[in-house]
Amino acid sequence: MHDTPAVTLSVSDLNRQARLMLERGFGDCWVEGEVSGLAKPASGHCYFTLKDDRAQLRCALFRTRARFAALFSNGDHVRLRGRVSIFEPRGDYQMIVEAVQPAGQGALLAAFERLKQQLAGEGVFANARPLPCPPRKLLVITSATGAAIRDVLAVLEARWPLLDVTLLPVPVQGREAVPAIVRALALANQNPNLDPQRDAILITRGGGSLEDLWAFNDEHLARAIFHSRLPVMSAVGHEVDVTLADFAADVRAPTPSAAAEQLVPDRRELSRRLNDALLRLARCQRARLDTETQRLDHLRARLRHPGERLVGQRQRLEQLQVRLQRAMAQQRHVARQRQAHLAQRLRACDPARQVTEARGRLERARQRLHLTLPQHLTTQRGRLNALARELNAVSPLAVLGRGYAILENTEGHVIKRAEDTSPGQRLSARLGQGRLSVEVRRRYKS
After folding, report:
1. What class does CATH assign to 123-264?
2. In the chain, what are the domain boundaries?
3. pLDDT tens digits, residue range 222-235?
4. Pick from 213, 214, 142, 124: which is nearest to 181 by CA?
5. 430: helix, coil or strand?
């Protein structure tokens, strides 16, 4: 018996999770090898195997990228860019191809990167002027027989047929391409006063190999685009193709058709938006009209004849007059009551009456004072004599009066023992009446 796993995945769940892990883990990568087993079914997709001497990898090139299929065949040595994935229904490990290059293009790519860094350092790629949308007159520099001009014109005709398009035909690959494109740019930028309506340039061509597109990586062409007075849009190759002309241009589009879509708005979309705006405007007008009509009805219902308003105002005036008279009568009544109360209080506080009462109280107080003062003095005199006797009984002066004396040294301290003196010491003797200054001649113990 085996323990049942906590979580059991279905085969489709496992394949889906594995696919997500592969796609997130690797992202885009480049792989080099030999093509074998190339198949081109009616769906337009391409399927083949990329191998080396030790392993092989299944590859899928979908229809949107299948125009690259003409660039390689069985036995070719190529470099692929794509993402690693899994075909979930069969669990097949495969590579979804985004771009194909012959493996011998390393030198061209290195030259491309060196020139790109040089031009970037010189500021050739600093253009970023906005193109007018839609432009009044568009100058298209491309091949007159290529698929790019057909795609551009078809999209422009469908989206904005009012645009004035002028074609400046040039070869778009080979030795003559660069001089021709540079001359076309110069022609487009000269004598602006002769045709002030022209205001945008489109340089474009269809897809191809790196060698086919190499003319658009030319240094002179990049500088000519940079110095163009009119803003330039570049749309060379497919989405994965990037050239120096794209970097030097003001705006880059991934394909010729995408360039046409960026240059002009879609008249059908504008028409739809205009119709939507008209419908919203009509709805808003109806709603506003309904609201104002309702408001007018409400105001009309509130509007009354001036005579009715006068009658109402007269009634209100009479009511206010009655209330005013009642309030004035009430206020007079309250004032009379307050006056009577104050008069009563004033009579109670008559000064003559208060003076008479004060005189009576003063006379009674004088009589009580005459009666109680002699008696109080006698009592106090007796208490004073008694206290004097008590004080005389305990006073040392009384003792001194009986013949005693108090001896004090020069510091004023009382001499209580003979040992506290010394022969020849001067003392002060305090008698009952007066003082004596004495000198110690001899001391006795008892």
Report:
1. alpha beta
2. 11-105, 123-264, 270-295, 341-394, 399-439
3. 999 999 999 999 99
4. 142
5. strand
